[in-house]
Amino acid sequence: MIITKADRRTIYEALFKDGVLVAKKDFDAPKHLELDVRNLLVIKACQSLTSKGFVTTQFSWQYYYYVLTPEGIDYLREFLHLPAEIVPATFKKAVRAARPGAPARAGGEGAYRAPRRDGEDSYRRREDGAGGKEKSAGDDFRPRFSGVGRGGPRPAEA
Length: 158
Known about the structure:
Blueprint: H1 5-18, E1 20-24, H2 39-52, E2 55-60, E3 63-68, H3 70-79
Antiparallel strand pairs: 1-3, 2-3
């Protein structure tokens, strides 16, 4: 299909700006929902990019979802004569603002933890030394577990 250079440039600029483009499957629509271009031209231009491997296409609920691939970014950057520093919006890392009311953290991830008294070695140890393995059950300790396996009784031991 013949697409004018101005329409093709408009489609490619919109695709490169966001990194994605959505088009309704309506070939008779007079214009695209976001662009001032016929919807059929948007679908066919993106179909061409898909066949070249520059865009991936997902179709769901009568809408086409076009997503740029890394090769497509390079191709559109060359077509639109853009520098390498400019990237689509989907490739930019979103900066999250601090939550209001949350205390400012000195560094690191996760919740605040109070420093330990004696370092790593005292983790979950009692102060008096008890709670270790000094006391054992004894040699005559034979625990009984009824219902071994599928719940049947255990055979008598001799």
